[in-house]
Amino acid sequence: MGQHIRVKVNKERTIKWTNLVILKRNRTTTTSLIVSEKFGKRHDNVIQRIENLSKEDESGRLNFKESSYINSQNKEQKMYKMDKHSFIILAMRFTGKKALKWQHIFVDAFEAMELAIVRQQNIAWNQARLEGSRSVVSLPTKFKSSSNMRKNRDRKTPGYITCK
Predict the structure, then answer these.
(1) 5-16 residue pLDDT tens
(2) Contact predicate 85/110, CB 8 Å
(3) d(CA 54, CA 34)
(4) Residue 42 CB contacts under 8 Å (≥ 6 apart), including other chains
(5) What is the tens place of the pLDDT at every residue in 91-125?
(6) Coil, strand or helix: which one is 72?
């Protein structure tokens, strides 16, 4: 999206939310790699927790998608992508002050990114609406006559109105 949304962690520094939450096809996600780094957990332990959660999930609501990344030894390694709901369920398993701090930061990051999506969609909708109203104003007079449309209804192509 180009814009950087920031959250204050303390007085000295800020963290870009775009480093925590990924926006792709208007969906917000994060990865097990990011979660393990920020929560100070070993990545293999985070993966094990995700896999255990997936086995325990009878509702089918958890959305952990297996993916991969290339590590520093140039080897392909497993990781998971997850949506906000799945992240929250996973993060609830982490305890302590540091975990609570990162839980808040991640949830705020998801919400800020979701708000940015809504704002972007509103801007696009308003632009389309304005462009649509401009095109209605510039319609040729032959299209503006409703009687002209009624006369030609159902000719040639059923369900369509043709105008002359």
Answers:
(1) 444 444 433 344
(2) no
(3) 19
(4) 36
(5) 999 999 999 999 998 888 888 888 877 887 788 77
(6) coil
Nearest to 152 by CA among 141, 163, 142, 144: 163
Give Rg (Cα) of the chain: 25
**What DSSP state is assigned to residue 155?**
S
Tokens of residue 102, six digits: 């990162």
Sign for the CA dihedral angle at 88, 90, 96, 99 comes to negative
Q: How far apart are CA 147 and CA 164, in angstroms?
A: 11
Give pTM, 2 decimals. Answer: 0.61
| Buried-exposed string 67-105: b where 16+ CB fall within 10 A, e elsewhere | eeeeeeeeeeeebbbbbbebbebbbeebeeeebeebbeb
| Long-range CB pairs of 33-41, under 8 A, 24+ apart, other chains included | 33/69, 33/79, 35/82, 35/87, 35/90, 35/91, 35/106, 38/102, 38/105, 38/106, 39/91, 39/94, 39/98, 39/99, 39/102, 40/98, 41/94
Residue ranges of domains in the chain? 6-137
d(CA 73, CA 75): 5
